[in-house]
Amino acid sequence: MVKVHLYGTEPGSALAATELAQKLAAQHGAAKTRIVRFSGPEVADGRGTRIQLQDFKTAACPAPDGPVRLLREWPAGVQDTFAGFAEQMTADGFAFLYRLMQAGTVGPVLTAVVKGKVAGAIGPMEIRPDAIGTPQLMPQYFGVLSEHRGKGLGRLLWRAAMHWGQNHKAVYQLLQTEVGGASDRLCQSEGLTSLGFTYWQAA
């Protein structure tokens, strides 16, 4: 697939991007082409993916009061239930994350536990410098088992992650959320700043 990112709004820019995408597809034998477009935060009916900013310099991120802690801090029997959680949450990337955890190649994972079993998780928790050296909290896999949704566990996990990031000297985190989705609604209710939207169209 060939993707052309279109940042301009000038008349004819979409046509120029389409022509470029089709030319590149022909040159490289791509079967599909897409134009990735952007709009600013002022757009009332944003669609696609919302780009959001968590600025750790603007306010304190207190630790939440609830059954959330790093997986390694739970008793061994509770830790063992993460494998089953990851299998149930394969579609959300947790089976892949679990393999990385077993290999010891990723940072810690925060978990919510209900009745001795992992019911939700967010991680890995990692901070890396951006292109100009500013420490940023990297995006995480984030999910709660369907039978435990609607009980506030997602919000507890989110707040625990923000607390961890701030305590480990991250300056900010950038997130991409599907407009209108559960994570999007959560981030909006938690006061993140919307930086705009990205969406795609076939070329």
From the structure above, extract its key features.
203 residues; alpha+beta; five-stranded mixed beta sheet; four-stranded antiparallel beta sheet; 6 helices; globular
Write up what this structure looks like.
The chain is built from six helices and eleven strands. The longest helix is centred in the N-terminal third of the chain and has 16 residues, at 13-28. The strands form three sheets. It has a five-stranded mixed sheet with strand order 1-2-11-3-10, covered by helices on one side. The protein is α+β, with helices and mostly antiparallel strands and 203 residues long.
List the helices and strands and how they pair.
Blueprint: E1 2-6, H1 13-28, E2 33-39, E3 49-55, E4 68-70, H2 76-79, H3 82-88, H4 94-103, E5 110-114, E6 117-123, E7 127-129, E8 135-137, E9 141-144, H5 153-167, E10 172-178, H6 182-189, E11 193-202
Helix pairs in contact: 3-4
Kindly summarize this structure in a few lines.
The protein starts with a strand and ends with a strand. The chain is α+β, with helices and mostly antiparallel strands and 203 residues long. The protein has helices at 13-28, 76-79, 82-88, 94-103, 153-167, 182-189; strands at residues 2-6, 33-39, 49-55, 68-70, 110-114, 117-123, 127-129, 135-137, 141-144, 172-178, 193-202.
